[in-house]
Amino acid sequence: HNAEAPNLEQVFHRMAQTEPNLDHDISWFLLPSYWAKMVVALISFLCFANSYDGDFVFDDSEAIINNKDLRAETPLGDLWHHDFWGSKLSSNTSHKSYRPLTVLTFRINYLFAGGFYPVGFHVINIILHCTISVLMVDVFSILLGGLQFSNKGRRLNLAPKTSLLAALLFAVHPVHTECVAGIVGRADLLCALFFLLSFLGYCKAFRESKEGHNFSVFWVLVSVILGAVAMLCKEQGITILGLNAVFDALVINKLNVLELIQKLLHKDKSLENAGLLRKGLLFRITLLMSGGASILYIRWRIMGTGPPAFTEVDNPASFADSLFVRAINYNYYYSLNAWLLLCPWWLCFDWSMGCIPLIKSVSDWRIIALAALWFCLIGLICQALCSEDSHKRRILTLGLGFLIIPFLPASNLFFRVGFVIAERVIYLPSIGYCILFTYGFSLLSKQAKKKKILAVAVLGILLVNVTRCALRSSQWRSEEQLFRSALSVCPLNAKVHYNVGKNLADKGNQSAAIKYYREAVRLNPKYVHAMNNLGNILKERNELQEAEELLSLAVQIQPDFAAAWMNLGIVQNSLRRFEEAEQSYWTAIKHRKKYPDCYYNLGRLYADLNRHIDALNAWRNATVLKPEHSLAWNNMIILLDNTGNLAQAEAVGREALELIPNDHSLMFSLANVLGKSQKYKESEALFLKAIKANPNAASYHGNLAVLYHRWGNLDLAKKHYEVSLKLDPMAPGTKENYNLLRRKLEQLQKKGG
């Protein structure tokens, strides 16, 4: 049903007649609504188009490639019980980031693409940003020009110039690059989409109807539901309900906040006339608050009562003992976020791990940034509350509301967050920045004599931002470019050096990787992951002593670091300290129950010690936990073969090939067993299949030649011996076998002659 809102017709009429028009004083493009949206869509597309064929980078690996919730075999229902990264929400290690609708879109991307092909993921992100930017034209026309409908119920755009400018500012802001070019930023994009739809839906509640100027309860409820959907994409989405309430009070009911506060303090009996108790407002705010409280309660029940566990390196200020240090640094972080909106030139994929050293004293010069931030904020708040110009009060309050309220979940005020600064969380607050920038431009234009020069300056800012977006998007195309771009922005960030090192190591450049890993450990002496990776490389380079020292330190700092315990065991095994190695392996398994690689390495240790039963059991555990663990299957077949258990070896080989039918190394191992069991035909078929899959393996040709030699197919044996020797002239045993075959062939020729 519709609830009557008295005098709304007069409110809308007065808004149109008495409030100044921002467009009147600015020199800017005036385009029809359709063309304005086309221009915004085109420019926002141009900014980020070059990211369409980028790789999966940074957090994309964990949220997409390693996230089992994307795969068809995972029941859809699991999405509602898992966090953004695919972990159970009830787990102690969960980040409690509950975004099932975002994960669902990733899953759809994965299914349509038929695998992990990043192009489809990137294209959807670009389309989402273009859609949001187009919606911003309508949103800014309401926020800057007010809400008014024609006699036919169509919303009027009372600020076409300024709404176009603000939408362009939003569309080309470089700080949005992380959300658009980074696939994980899909959460922010979807959240923003439903956030804006919720706002526009709330505005529709005041559309004219045949009965008069009523508000529609239906559209208020739709707005609440869309706010819930926004929150299921990312947590910030819930803040739209608060902004809808602010918009209702300021725009629909023209509430004067300062006047209301004064009347409340003086217990003025005319409070009802102040607007707060005007029929309809309290009812709508009650609906919004009830909806928001219900959504938060359900979210809390799903998440569980335990907060997410973050470490000091993620957000060092939140771990400071002193309340003063925490407060100072939180405010410094706010000032840096504000600076990124004003001057988005220094952008970084990660601002943690020493990137921003803590302020511990008032003598730190960075205190100036806090003072500047609060000077500007207090000035704007005073103008928003005390200005005699109601139009100015409304725009400034809405600008500050959209700047501050969506940022609150990331502010550390209500709960600890897992980052220092994250460019992605500024996506929604940038709406407020665009409002304030555009309003400031209109005020300057009003005072300026040469309005066109000012317009050219703003156009220049837009062009610079477009260029910066394109440049930053290209940096997000690959991990190498992304990580290296951060070295100049955050040289003190250990994670930046770690990621550059990891990228180099993955490409096989171990010498360069060691340099960056060492720098990461120097910057953060407790960086256990850098120690683990550095220890691994040193282990492979046979620098075992230093590798052991690093890995021992890593497990000392973090006793439950299973991967470091396993790698320490591998080093101790190489140093022939078998008892210590065994203990390290079992400690790793204690901290990570399902650890197939550790069982595999434990099996290798037992095999070296001739504890064959224990080795087979360890490898069997590895294959139970990870059925596609080819190395464990191979080692079982080889051990059983070497100990004369050919029947068991054959059974294990057949079981392995059923699970991994295209693994040529398993075909080779089983072919060897079948050859020894004189099942020549089947052995030959497997050897040939293995050679077809991997034609340059000398041992494959050599062992097939041995099979033919035993079988009596001497010409084929000769052919494959020769291929094997061509591929590897130093192949052990092959040359001797080949010489034996040649002598035998010569003898046969003599007898034949």
TrEMBL record:
It comes from the Eukaryota. SUPFAM superfamilies: TPR-like (SSF48452). Keywords: Endoplasmic reticulum, Membrane, Repeat, TPR repeat, Transferase, Transmembrane, Transmembrane helix. Pathway: Protein modification; protein glycosylation. GO terms for molecular function: dolichyl-phosphate-mannose-protein mannosyltransferase activity. One of its GO terms (cellular component) is membrane. It holds the Pfam family TPR_19. It is an enzyme of class 2 (transferase). Its EC number is 2.4.1.109. TPR repeats lie at residues 494-527, 528-561, 596-629, 698-731. It is found in: Endoplasmic reticulum; Membrane. The keyword Lyase does not apply. The chain crosses the membrane at residues 34-52, 126-146, 183-203, 215-232, 281-300, 367-386, 398-419, 425-444. InterPro entries: O-mannosyl-transferase_TMTC, TMTC_DUF1736, TPR-like_helical_dom_sf, TPR_rpt. Residues 306-378 form the DUF1736 domain. One of its GO terms (biological process) is endoplasmic reticulum unfolded protein response. It is a multi-pass membrane protein. PROSITE patterns: TPR, TPR_REGION. Belongs to the TMTC family. This is dolichyl-phosphate-mannose--protein mannosyltransferase. It comes from Ibidorhyncha struthersii. The gene is Tmtc4.
